[in-house]
User: What shape does this take?
Amino acid sequence: MLGAQTADAQSSEEDSRVVFPALKTQDADNSATAPVYELKELFPESVAEELLKTGRIQRSFYGESNVKLELCPATDLCRSAASAWDKQNEPVFIVESLYLLKKAQGTGQAAGEIGKISSILRNLSTMQGIQYYSNSRKRWETLYTEVYTVNNPDERARIPDPADKKADGLVSYVYQKDRSLSGCVYKFQYFEQAAQTSFRAENTEKIVYKGFNIVKPEAMLLCLNAVETEEHIVFYITVRADAAKIPLVSERLAKSYGSRADAIYNWCVSKYSEE
Assistant: This one.
């Protein structure tokens, strides 16, 4: 957990960050290569150092106001995801996670590894059966028992994943049955820029947890951003929800979303390693 920064220090760090000027290409053997970012220019020095050391940084909040997402990489696309919460109420719980994945050995900067991540994110049915660590039960369990793409939230006819569709601007609907939550169709919106790919997922119907109507339709937003650097792929995952405040129930659900973010990242890693 990172300590809170002073407003002056944080402002100074943000002002010193370079966004698109950091996006560069390297000409190896006079051939064009894929553009990437530099890790040190995506984050304040303290965050970059901790991420290199630990590979994972996670912050979570429950029932707090005016929470600032301090782990957001300094790119326009990531900042857009961080500011994507447009609901009337503030989120009741927030999870913010950073992960650092070493690129496959020998790929180098020219490989354009972000394209592989983009493909994985459009094959969401492969999330079925992924595992997460249940903090309440202290054991590994299946997170999603069912995952498949549907034509729309009303008819819910099963269709193939949009693997062959252009990612930027794509909208897809995916049914997910969580081990602990009711089945729900989520709206996935995809965005891409040079060296970056992302999706934003929003629930289209209410979410029921242990018999309680815990989240209203369009009141939960999960954003995943992946940014390619010279040696790594940075994953930035945020989960925000305007959840009902039910004693012992809501806070337990909020805590579980840290493990769920980890599970989604681990799914990306496992699929990337298969490429």
Observations:
- The helical segments are 7-16, 45-54, 76-82, 114-121, 250-274.
- The chain is about 20% helix and 35% strand.
